[in-house]
Design brief:
heterodimer, A: two-stranded antiparallel ribbon, 20 helices, 77% helix, B: mainly alpha
Chain lengths: 508, 146
């Protein structure tokens, strides 16, 4: 029994950090082994739902009692792989698992019309793997483990995007482009990790941070930082590195777009945050330069250029894709301000934009189910044909603009506050100006949906309930988090505090 | 019918030793270079060689495509399942010490053995599936289809 004392006897709740990963991870091969189209969905949903419940428990526990550490295989950090959860991870975990779970019921009807039947089982396998990968990136405290999970999620995303090929063959080239650019990003990232390992001799994030604090940085670490920024920038679709995104989002099946638009880029941004604030400290000169002279200008460029491109799109889905790139600009701007308020804005926008975009893409998917295409010309007058779907799109659209009473307003408000706090009035104006562009592109959608006549012979017919309910949960969430900001703001502020003032201090 | 007689005979002779060598690499991985990945590739080579020489139908009679697909999933289940078992025994995920609490080093052996077995199955399944995917490839998409 003495050996048992070494490996402290545990209750199930101690295993939550790893259970959130292994439940969906085990479910993925299980769907293949069982090979039943009918059972694949219940398995996937059960797994995703348990991950969601766990993420809620984890967030509550982290907000209550600080950082949770879990040593995989009983090998204590920094030697073994550590899963380390603070407010920042827990919040992103909640976002990813919530979107992953809510999108799942939506997939049933959506993939029926968009993906060939023989791929349905595989679809859920890939969905679960992507889900696992995204959660894994967030949960781990080991720099190389981030890369591994990143690849798990990316590879499955490429397959998911390519599954849109039945509707449009261009999904194949979109997936291929994404594969090439995503792999380039991952390569840059792993080169960065390699440099870090060469310079510090450790892969544990907290340990690297400690090393850098004690020894300062050197050229190798600065190079590593640059590689990681570019690599994750590609994954997060930071403005000039965004080229994979519009096609991937447009041609992927609607259910897939709803899921990855709300999660994949957000997770990449989370990794950026981790590396910028936890591992490297922002007070190092080179990082200040990188943020001030590279990240901020690109963020502002994204806010305007991508919004402007979105205005001129004639395809609803593609417009939303460009708007995503613009919204990532806001998040980067918040990060670039390097203050607690700025970071809070970035993190809360990460969450709010995630749910907003998921709702919008779900809405498009429901329209596409009926009209067969997301071109504005094809969805004219849908407000009369599918009133509930269209209204949900309007609500989420308002959140995208940042109208008071919606989630989008909260994050933009905090962002403007953060800019003014530091006396950057032009930045605050830029945020408002870019929101005006958002009004234009959202208005075009509203105009198309409500002010045009539907094509002849279309009778009022709503999307099936399995699509409407998730859509309305998401649209409802954008309103809920626009009014009740208790959870999001507390979590975001705690996360921002944790990122700025030490990952390690909270460890005890 | 009897073209490439030498190839056929040599292949028939070699398939068994290749599998045997794969198992050697697998189980001797503790003491010499090797392990599930290398063994899995070697194991797959036996099937691929058989397929190259005797044709896709012949090798798929031995290992059907569905079996290769299931193997990919089964191996992952074995790997992760090992972790779950250790978790159920009251230890951390993948803590091999749990398999033999009084002699943790024995537990490490058991754990690695089981995990590597999962890797062997998955890698074999993946390599064979890749070969099947290429060998059974349908003609490229014709221009009209785009």
């Amino acid at each position: 029994m003495s050996a048992q004392a070494l490996h402290t006897a545990r209750t199930l709740s101690d295993h939550l950090p790893v259970l959130i990963i292994i439940i969906p991870f085990l479910a993925a091969p299980l769907t293949v082994l069982i090979g039943s189209r009918r059972l694949a969905w219940p398995i996937a949903f059960g797994a995703a739902l348990s991950s969601f419940v766990i993420s809620v428990l984890l967030l509550l526990r982290v907000l209550d009692s600080g950082v949770i550490s879990y040593a995989i295989g009983g090998w204590l950090p920094p030697i073994g792989i550590e899963y380390r959860i603070d407010a920042a991870n827990a919040f992103v975990l909640l976002l990813v698992s919530a979107i992953g779970t809510i999108v799942l019921p939506y997939t049933i009807q959506s993939i029926k019309s968009e993906i060939p039947e023989r791929h349905h089982t595989l679809f859920y396998t890939m969905y679960l793997l992507c889900f696992t990968g995204l959660l894994g990136v967030v949960v781990t405290g080991d720099a190389f483990n981030v890369f591994v999970f990143l690849e798990v999620s990316s590879l499955s995303t490429y397959v998911l995007v390519a599954m849109g090929a039945q509707t449009d063959k261009r999904a194949l080239t979109a997936a291929y482009d994404y594969l090439v650019m995503g792999t380039t990003g991952a390569t840059f990232f792993v080169i960065g990790i390699g440099f870090i390992y060469a310079a510090t001799g450790t892969l544990n994030m907290a340990d690297i941070a400690l090393y850098i604090q004690v020894h300062g940085t050197n050229r190798t670490l600065e190079t590593a930082f640059a590689f990681i920024m570019v690599g994750m920038g590609l994954k997060a679709a930071v403005y000039p590195l965004h080229l994979w995104l519009p096609n991937a989002y447009t041609y992927a099946p609607s259910a897939v777009t709803s899921f990855i638009a709300g999660t994949a880029t957000k997770v990449a941004i989370y990794v950026l945050l981790r590396f910028m604030f936890t591992i490297f400290q922002p007070d190092f000169l080179f990082e200040m330069h990188a943020v001030r002279w590279v990240m901020m200008p690109l963020a502002i460029l994204a806010m305007f250029a991508a919004s402007l491109i979105a205005v001129f799109q004639s395809d609803f889905k593609r417009m939303l894709a460009y708007s995503s790139i613009a919204q990532i600009g806001y998040i980067l701007l918040g990060i670039g301000l390097l203050s607690t308020t700025g970071l809070t804005a970035a993190i809360v926008h990460l969450f709010n934009h995630g749910i907003t975009k998921a709702a919008l893409f779900m809405g498009v998917g429901a329209l596409v189910l009926r009209s067969g295409s997301s071109f504005y010309a094809k969805i004219e007058g849908m407000g009369k044909v599918m009133p509930f779907t269209s209204f949900a799109i309007v609500i989420a659209g308002l959140s995208l603009i940042g109208v008071p009473g919606t989630a989008g307003f909260i994050s933009k408000w905090v962002l403007v506050q953060a800019a003014i706090e530091q006396g950057y009035w032009p930045l605050a104006l830029a945020i408002v100006g870019s929101s005006l562009l958002a009004i234009i592109y959202v208005w075009r959608v509203i105009e198309t949906l409500y002010m045009k006549q539907p094509a002849d012979g279309w009778v009022k017919q709503e999307a099936p309930l399995t699509m409407l309910v998730p859509l309305w949960i998401m649209a409802g969430a954008t309103v809920w988090f626009g009014i009740d900001t208790e959870l999001t703001m507390t979590a975001a502020r705690t996360a921002a505090d944790g990122l700025l003032h030490g990952f390690m201090a909270g460890g005890q | 019918m009897h073209h490439h007689l030498i190839l056929r005979v040599v292949t028939k002779i070699l398939v068994a030793p290749i599998i045997l060598f794969a198992l050697y690499v697998q189980f001797h991985g503790d003491f010499s270079p090797g392990g599930g990945f290398q063994a899995g590739v070697l194991m797959a080579v036996a099937f691929i060689l058989y397929g190259i020489v005797f044709g896709l139908e012949t090798v798929q009679a031995v290992m059907p495509a569905w079996l290769a697909h299931k193997m990919m999933a089964a191996g992952v289940m074995i790997y992760a399942g090992t972790g779950v078992v250790s978790l159920l025994l009251g230890y951390n995920f993948l803590d091999y010490g749990s398999f033999s609490p009084h002699h943790p080093s024995h537990g490490q052996h058991w754990g690695i053995f089981s995990v590597e077995f999962g890797v062997l199955i998955t890698v074999t399944g993946v390599m064979v599936s890749i070969y099947y995917a290429f060998a059974a490839r349908r003609p490229a998409i014709s221009n009209e289809e785009w």
